[in-house]
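Let's practice the habit of predicting before peeking. Look at the sequence and jot down your guess about where helices and strands might fall. Then scroll down.
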Amino acid sequence: MTAAGFALPPPATTAPDATPTGPRSAFGRIFRSIAYGLLAITVPPYIIAAAALAAAAAMLYGVGKLLEGVGHALALGPELLYKACVGKRAKDAWRSLTGSRGRRAEQETGQIAI
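Done guessing? Here is the structure:
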């Protein structure tokens, strides 16, 4: 009994490395240590390789998007020029068919009174 009146816990009867079936064998501890060491040596290179592969894939994706944007920018000028020329030709062809040169007569040109 202690001074406060509580009883002390019973003493431990087993060693800290004991299991219910008996103490652990030295072979088990050695095997587990070797296995952890082999895992520590072999796993990190695979993790680094996976990270490098992911970085390379992201870089290739980014370069592809950059080239796509440059291609669109290079094609923008000629494309707009082509559309402008085709638009003028289409307007000229429509005007020649309909015979109108200016605004249509039914279009109002001023403010609309409500």
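How did you do? The beta strands are 18-19, 22-23.
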